[in-house]
């Protein structure tokens, strides 16, 4: 079977209009309708039709010759009826404030009023009873009781309102008791609302003490709130408009964010009016609106107890304009466009362009207001931006103007750069190797970012070869080459760059081949020839070029004979002694090379000694001949080489004629591989791009040194050559990277290995400064080392180790590096504390290199009387250090029993700049078992108390101040202790009256405070001088107590001065002892404690309470020293004034003339008073004023220390 169902029931609501023309039916119908109960059920069995309500809506009555139609309670005329018909007088039941309750004449579409919409009235009323906290708790009995009673009264009262539906109590708040509640109804008239409120009062128990005058009602949904414009920009003129059919001119505006009512000002204007006697309109106009004006605004219209409120939030947008911040333009007459667009599309009325600057380069704008973009195009040529103003910046401004007045602009910085006119050295440059030349490049533009020189291949010339000087007329850059090599042959570019604009001038340089004087190998260096004998002389170079070579002696010149031997070319001349008439004689022979450019170079001299033949004893075909005792040198290339040894290519061999044989006296030969490296190093220092070649060369040097270490150990000269190479290369770099430093130390590690030590010993007997030169070279490389990381790489080799760090924000508080060499059984460490690190600039690097074997060769003399027996550590900082700098080091103690350790440093200036050990400035701080600790010796002088400066450590001034300080403080401490003992012994006998009691109280406290302060000062100096690195906590504590008790000394001296003044001036006034003691101790200890605590509290959290180099108040960072200096000097001035008053009292004239004896007595009294008051009132501290200023004369420091250390 199939189930069937009837269609779902549909419900319709039907409004039926019934009209009665007889006005007499009005009241009976109203009475009848009032008696009915709704809904009324229909009688149909099939479909139900229920009558929900029957109400009278519209009543028309004849009035005179007119018909007046009015709406009953809860109904109102539609707005269009009000606009089309004339209104009559107000009907009693018309809604509050409305002027359209009654119309004249029948409306053309029938007299039909419409039901008003529901509104929710947010109301409040005050009960004049005490507020109880239970009224905040909705579940409390009191809350429920109040709510029930009040809602019952509200229902009975407000049920007379048209369209009344609901009333609800929403809460209570203090002020006696304020009841808040909501009434849902149609908008009633004020009169009807007052009647309803009266009904509420009558239906509420009088114990609630309801205040009738406190009824308030706020309604919403009645006001039309509009904002013009919808999108608001800063600077716009904005209108906020409120419209309401309630007729009232009592309208207020409120800005929520500023929590204030809006008043008429220069930027805010409020205007309220009633239009056509039908609508209230209030307009708030905000001129030149800012983002601070954004937020929520409330428009509130008030009529009787009703408030009609509407609120809206406005957002104020900044005018964001997209355009480039800056542009660089070259004045080459090419079109340039500046583009400016608004990020938000708005109603723009105009986009304007203007410019500001020294030069005027106009253009033409193209603007599209709809898209909010504008383009400004101009052409700049050389006449508009002349060379003198190259690099001038012109500001182009694109300004957007909105329809409502907002203006926003964007500045575009356009830098105009003319193509700089460069003038370069006009004459052709043609030089030969070894000669100098310079190229001068002059620009008519003085404004540039960079000047550089390049080769035609784009290789940048090392900056040490050129200098640039700027002047008002332009700029001059000069490239200077002191020794030209063939690498300098080519075209050179002088480049001026400003922003992205480049000006280039070129110059060709021709460098003709010509051997350099050191590259011409001569043989012999010195020769002895019998008067009738002969000798071959030769000059050799490494390449075969077309040179004209002659040998010259005195005024004679001889053509040389050319001989090619592999890669070496030699020019020879056979000198016949019989060809000259002078014998015996000493002559200098030179070989003279002339190239195709007619430039010439002369070799080093070959010394010729013509002697009688009978004196010749030693003869050798290679070495030559000589008389007994004769010492000669020969280049190793032309010397006798022991069998089996590789022929060296560098250095010299020294021979001595002993008997009839030549003996080797000194061997300075350099092996071929090392000599080649030395020649390359010399060439590199003359190269135009030496900084680019240096990394590769250092890598090759490191690898080659390891490969040829056998040759290095065989030839002491090779070892010296490597030292010379490192010395040469250390002068090249301005910056060294980690890889370069690693290669340098790899080379050093090889030449300092233990197998090399015997070679060093031989070498040291010949040249004692080579080890010092090596150390100096490593330090130069260390100072040039740069790293981006705060922690350097750690390099560990058998014979050398390196550690380092970069000073950066948040870097470690201390620098401490440890070095351990297990092969040498040596260790050591170096430490620099935070105070010293704090004096370094950010980006400074600290590098420490340690050597275990350098101690064996770094001796002051060949005998090695003063020998280091620990690690040699060198620490460098790559920035200049202007303040005293202190380093602590610890070494393994390897001193034999009975030996006395010394802490020394290598002073490169000793022994005629060959270097030596120096102990000045450093000392042994501790010998503990197998360790020796060294630190610098740096004492603290007394004058530091009031001076921002500290004497330079080790200076004569520092030593003198230290001696005065410590002697004076020791005497003072003993004297003050004795003073306190004496005071304690005689206290009862000298304090019998108030005056003497207070005087001795002040003296005793001055002595006690000064004693503690002086002891604290010595303790602080000891902390600083003997316990380095500084113990920060101890230093802060010492500084605090020194500050506190020296201030106490001054304030007790002030108390004593004021007491003297009080007794001299206020003779007849006598305060009680308790008052005087309270004032004295408050001044003496209270004020210093407050100042000291505030000072340490304000500065110590930032760790700038104490100085970096002393335990005393900071000056450089926080000027905390003023917390001592200012109170001290003020007190000194006050006490000086009191002293003057005392003297004036003594000099007061007596009646009659003074006899001579009385005058002498007065003079004695004055002297006695000054003598007593000067130390008691601290007048000598006035000299501290002279030491407060930085750089003050040393005399003031000495006087200040001398006077006050003995106080």
Automatic annotation (TrEMBL):
As for subcellular location, the record says: Cell membrane
InterPro entries of this UniProt entry? ADGRF3/5_N, Adhesion_GPCR, GAIN_B, GAIN_dom_sf, GPCR_2-like_7TM, GPCR_2_Ig-hepta-like_rcpt, GPCR_2_secretin-like, GPS
TM spans (from-to): 963-990, 1002-1024, 1044-1066, 1078-1100, 1120-1143, 1163-1183
GO function terms (MF aspect)? G protein-coupled receptor activity
Cross-referenced SMART domains: GPS, IG, IGc2
- Sequence ranges assigned to domain G-protein coupled receptors family 2 profile in this UniProt record: 961-1207
Does Transmembrane helix show up as a keyword for this record? yes
Where does the GAIN-B domain lie? 791-952
Q: Can you supply one Gene Ontology CC term for this chain's record?
A: plasma membrane
This molecule's function is given as: Adhesion G protein-coupled receptor. In alveolar type II (ATII or AT2) cells, required for normal lung surfactant homeostasis. Modulation of both surfactant secretion and uptake by ATII cells is mediated by the downstream activation of GNAQ/GNA11 proteins and may be a consequence of increased cortical F-actin assembly induced by ADGRF5 activation. In the kidney, may play a role in the regulation of acid excretion into the primary urine, possibly by regulating the surface expression of V-ATPase proton pump.
**What is the protein name stated in its UniProt record?**
Adhesion G protein-coupled receptor F5
Name the source organism. Answer: Ailuropoda melanoleuca
